[in-house]
Amino acid sequence: MGGIEIFLDGISKAFGLILSSDPEVLGITALSLKVSVVATMVGAAFGVPLGFLIASRSFCGRSLLVAVINTFMGVPPVVVGLVVYLILSSSGPLGFLRILYTPQAMILAQTLLTFPVVCGLTISSILGLDPNLKETLQSLSAPKLWEAAILLRESRIGLIAAVIAAFGAAISEVGAIMMVGGNILGYTRALTTAIMLYTNTGEFALAIALGIILLTVSFGINLLLTVLQIKYRKRR
């Protein structure tokens, strides 16, 4: 059977697995979504406030701090995976937690990847606001919380984009979660690690089915961002 025939046969079987709600496919998809959503939420919970504080305050070393955050936005996931592995290993400082090769370790690794993405894009969003808006709020001597609420509201599309970008980075990540999760069937096997494994073992139907799901999720989050941006522009 040639390459094209294998691909077409894999596509046919993949749709069969998806439509039949194959338990293995559902389990892998559910775990991947759970880990990515939790990691994105935690990353956003810390990234948005810190990004706002950095962008809205002038202090010595701000440019250096922004450069560091931007650098971490592009850090190779395998480096993050290595760091988390060493921290959580039996001889590491957090080895007593015994969470290596668990979904919790995967969440920790993905949080370290999503945090700088959310923080960096939040900084860019706040800094990109009209300077006149900031000057007007300051001239009115508005309470700090009210001023922050206005600035966050005006940059909400950028903040949504930051969270969606972080989620996209999390759910498509493979290196870090492979290292700290172990790709254990029924426990830590996510979409990306499963696709890699099933491709290497020749189980193309499963690999293609999971690839279709991953592409669908990625398309969905990008469609959501596009719709929100269009709605926001129409209101302005």
Automatic annotation (TrEMBL):
Residues 29-225 form the ABC transmembrane type-1 domain. The keyword Plastid does not apply. The keyword Metal-binding does not apply. One of its GO terms (biological process) is transmembrane transport. Keywords: Membrane, Transmembrane, Transmembrane helix, Transport. It comes from the Archaea. CDD domains: TM_PBP2 (cd06261). InterPro entries: ABC_perm_TupB-like, MetI-like, MetI-like_sf. It is found in: Cell membrane; Membrane. One of its GO terms (cellular component) is plasma membrane. The chain crosses the membrane at residues 25-52, 64-87, 107-129, 159-184, 204-228. It is a multi-pass membrane protein. Belongs to the binding-protein-dependent transport system permease family. This is ABC-type tungstate transport system, permease protein. It comes from Methanosuratincola subterraneus.
